[in-house]
Amino acid sequence: MDEKYAVDIEHVVRIYKRDEFEVRALDDVTIRVPQARFVAIMGPSGSGKTTLLNLIAGIDHATSGKVSVGGEEITGMKERDLAAWRARHIGLVFQFYNLIPVLTAFENVELPLLLTPLTKTERREHVETALRIVGLADRMDHYPRQLSGGQEQRVAIARALVTDPTIVVADEPTGDLDAKSAEEILNLLTELNRQFRRTVVMVTHDPRAERFVDTVYRLDKGVLVGVEAGKIAPAHAAAATAQ
Asked: Phi first, then psi: what are they for 16, rounded to 5°?
């Protein structure tokens, strides 16, 4: 297992059974993402993007093939072990933020830490740091309804960061935002990648994303049909091509 890869997916197939039909969501996909890269998985609806992201995040299981994340093979892990692994290594960001409306920004970001042995003081330090990183230190006592969509997504990113994950996994993080807010979120994810050396794997329909990422992996009908350099860092693409 090669630890220089944050994500190492080899010959993965994912088949869903619906009644007597089989849907091949992923068909012999091989992708290797080096550590500390910002990559996008793109393709039309139904191409298998979210399925692939769910395999990387340990939310779904491959039908066959191998999935290694952070140098650790997760393909055969039991659910209990997988949940513990996910809590340690994966920071999840969703399109619709998934914030709890009756909790403040601070309390939403603190949620993942309630499952850890950290003291209340340590939790506060972690939450304040995460909110400061996303530029919302002055909004920690606000409720989601008091924030803009872009600010809500920043809170969601702070929640993903607060456990210091190995990989940030983002599913359409700009999909529900206006153009200005989307640009701000893409800039923030770029900053997390460049400044804090976080690997970021993002599923997106947003063509603007290509200006921010190192590599674009294109899926179509469950098949990897292309690996391209992002518009900003062509030198990075060679190391990130599928093997």
From this structure: -105, 135
